[in-house]
TrEMBL record, chain A:
Positions of the ABC transporter domain: 7-246
Gene Ontology molecular function: ABC-type nickel transporter activity; ATP binding; ATP hydrolysis activity; nickel cation binding
Protein name: Nickel transport system ATP-binding protein
Chief localization: membrane
InterPro entries associated with the record: AAA+_ATPase, ABC_Ni/Peptide_Import, ABC_transporter-like_ATP-bd, ABC_transporter-like_CS, Nickel_NikD, P-loop_NTPase
Membrane topology: Peripheral membrane protein
Keywords, comma-separated and alphabetical: ATP-binding, Cell inner membrane, Cell membrane, Ion transport, Membrane, Nickel, Nickel transport, Nucleotide-binding, Translocase, Transport
A Gene Ontology cellular-component term: plasma membrane
Classification via NCBIfam families: nickel_nikD
Compartment(s) of residence: Cell inner membrane
Family: Belongs to the ABC transporter superfamily.
Record SMART domains: AAA
Automatic annotation (TrEMBL), chain B:
Phylogenetic placement of the source organism: Bacteria, Pseudomonadati, Pseudomonadota, Alphaproteobacteria, Hyphomicrobiales
PROSITE patterns associated with the record: ABC_TRANSPORTER_1 (PS00211), ABC_TRANSPORTER_2 (PS50893)
NCBIfam families from the UniProt entry: nickel_nikE, PRK10419.1
Main function: Part of the ABC transporter complex NikABCDE involved in nickel import. Responsible for energy coupling to the transport system.
Quaternary organization: The complex is composed of two ATP-binding proteins (NikD and NikE), two transmembrane proteins (NikB and NikC) and a solute-binding protein (NikA).
Protein family: Belongs to the ABC transporter superfamily. Nickel importer (TC 3.A.1.5.3) family.
Organism: Consotaella salsifontis
Protein name, as recorded: Nickel import ATP-binding protein NikE
Pfam family, one: ABC_tran
SUPFAM superfamilies given in the database record: P-loop containing nucleoside triphosphate hydrolases
Amino acid sequence: MPTFLTIEAMTVAAAGAPRPLVENLSLTIERGRVLALVGASGSGKSMTCLASLGVLPPGVFQTGGEVRIDGRSHTWQELRGRHVAAIMQNPRGAFNPVRTMRDHAVETLKALGRFDSDADDRIASALIEVGLKEVKQVLPLHAFEMSGGMLQRMMIALALLSDAPFLFADEPTTDLDLVVQMRILDLLERLVAERGLGVLLVTHDMGVVARLADDVALIDHGRLVEEGPVEAMFASPRHPVTRLLVNAHLSLYGMELA
Amino acid sequence: MSLLQAEALTRRYRTHSLVGAGVARTALEDVSLSIAEGETVALLGRSGCGKSTLARLLAGLEKPDAGKVSYRGTPLSMLDRPARRAFRRDIQMVFQDSPSAVNPRFTVSAIIGEPLRHLTELDAAEREARVSELLEMVELPASIATRLPSQISGGQLQRVCIARALAAGPKLIILDEAVSNLDIHLQTAALDLLSQLQRSEAIAYLFVTHDLRLVERFAARALVMDEGRIVEEAGADGLAGLKHPASLLLRQAVLPALPRRMAEHAKVQPASTNKADALDPV
């Protein structure tokens, strides 16, 4: 099994924009650890994530950089689903509205060439693992019949079906109810511990970072400006933007940086 | 007399499909509350607990199936034309999703000016002056007035919506998850701005949210809702005393202030308020 994934010198530009959205950004994600990619809205954190998976929106292009696993370069087709699974903000938009959950699970397995006679068992065990225990009731449902929390669990179940060692999670709990958020974060923590998933967690919420991250990388205007263990980031942030984010977060708890 | 009072409000929603009416779902049941001038009340609860429904009933956007909302002692259904106009002017609302709360073809100046056209007697020149004043109040540059919503950031647009709510000189602003979509530092900045406006303009707020942390910071009194009912009220002594299971669950879901390994001993110190005690980060 691979042990680390590196995003190397990633550069992303929008057509007609004077400067790149992401500039020469490098990150390393280790198995069994959570790296939080943090920054304000519009800082380029989602673009980094999308570019690394080769799914940039129209009008935005990767102009440099690559993704390596254990030092070996891969095409996106090899990466997506096999080495890296992804979950996104707003899971509702990620499902086909006229297909059932079972259809999605089957499609995922077929795309990976793993649709064998044991498919039903694999699907059931993935659903149980993410806490969708009523497998028979959940599989015939469409996205509109499910809550945001159930859909995010289903997304994670689809990610697990792939057995990918790395997970990119882009604002996975941002639109969810606070209580649902707590449960999804608990689930991700358990999967990291039990399966040794390596997670790239994109978020703007320092509370989520404090809850789940081992390491933090801070991005500002498309550039990596600070990187380190989560404790250092909270105790002695160096960059002004990190200080701003940490201070704003702590002020919610009536605390401030020393 | 309270500014706005709700008595035993009940609201049901019925879903309709091609094959006829479905089962009615009770979104709100027997809810009473009152808001005095200049006070800040928080309405706290999970998604689907009925807090937005209550906010909409209080703003007069929907009618209750039972119970009544009274504005300065008069039920909304009994208000005459001038009183209804005064109600519309005094009670304003700011929504969570600001892009869908504005007309995308209106400039910022037209968005903020709209309540002035309908609810005040100001002429065009006076309206323009008032719009500039409001932009200054919410700390936006005057140059933004000619832009369209799509040309400004989400945080700026939320401030435009706050400026619109402030335009006609309201007595109460209902903030329905109005800052939830913003980055944390923008959320705290927006709340600081609202607190400051409360002091200068004596505005009352009904602050609808699911985030306990913001409640501690912003509101003097908090009501916790669960399954369409108000289940608990926290007073000035803070949220530490909340006991209802729904309140405890919300408490438990509050994200930690600090990473686990440094939560006990850290360089980070509690500031000189008692908020840290009420919201223990562990």
